[in-house]
């Protein structure tokens, strides 16, 4: 069962959230509030899996609440439901699950909740990747892979513990991984979304990907970033 909290200072919008969330059979609504301060106090004692919140509210904003969750590495994920589009880029820096603009329909929010449920149930990546590196066969646990990069004739695999090089193509290795959290972000990069920390603007057509666990960076196209917004974050 997915535990959820909802917060919005507008009573009608809050009731709409409650009505939609209540129709999702796999959800248990743990918290309904009209201000972020109440949620802030509650989740410190009883974290929820998912928090659905407005952004602009009197006192503490939904953005400040999400920032608190992010800075404290809490297990609660966030969906912003807001009438303001200007926070979208900053929202990605906080690794929010989704950003939904008002007015929205029931299907849009339910699909977002279901995507989060699928991602949560998938859990940790399992299995190992076998690569040819020089004359050796190297076995790498998939959950240690941060990203793969194609440079010239070789593919570099960045992991939490080491860096490996292989003459296998990125396409070949992508076929061997076949995990939902690995995404081809760019023609030269395959990234593990579990290690993504933030996206920063790099050029007119792409963003730079900053990861946990390495100072090395990857690239994501604007088109792919939009896809990630709609389906993963």
TrEMBL record:
It comes from the Bacteria. Residues 3-117 form the Response regulatory domain. SUPFAM superfamilies: CheY-like. Keywords: Phosphoprotein. The keyword Phosphoprotein applies. This is LuxR family transcriptional regulator. One of its GO terms (molecular function) is DNA binding. It comes from Listeria booriae. Residues 129-233 form the HTH LytTR-type domain.
């Amino acid at each position: 069962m997915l535990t959820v909290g909802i917060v919005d200072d507008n009573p009608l919008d809050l009731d709409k959230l409650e009505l939609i969330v209540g129709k999702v059979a796999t959800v248990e609504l743990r918290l309904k509030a009209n201000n972020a301060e109440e949620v802030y106090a509650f989740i410190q004692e009883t974290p929820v899996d998912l928090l659905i919140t407005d952004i602009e509210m009197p006192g503490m904003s939904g953005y400040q609440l999400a920032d608190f969750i992010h800075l404290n590495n809490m297990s609660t994920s966030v969906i912003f439901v807001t009438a303001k589009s200007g926070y979208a880029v900053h929202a990605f820096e906080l690794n929010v699950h989704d950003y939904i603009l008002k007015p929205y329909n029931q299907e849009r929010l339910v699909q977002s909740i279901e995507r989060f449920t699928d991602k949560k149930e998938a859990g940790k990546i399992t299995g190992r990747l076998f690569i040819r590196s020089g004359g050796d066969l190297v076995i790498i646990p998939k959950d240690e892979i941060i990203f793969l990069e194609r440079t010239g004739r070789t593919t570099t695999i960045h992991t939490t513990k080491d860096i490996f090089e292989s003459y296998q193509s990125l396409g070949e290795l992508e076929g061997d991984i076949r995990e939902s959290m690995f995404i081809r972000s760019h023609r030269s990069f395959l990234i593990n979304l579990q290690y993504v920390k933030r996206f920063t603007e790099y050029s007119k057509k792409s963003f730079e990907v900053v990861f946990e666990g390495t100072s090395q960076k990857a690239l994501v196209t604007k088109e792919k970033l939009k896809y990630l917004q709609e389906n993963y974050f």
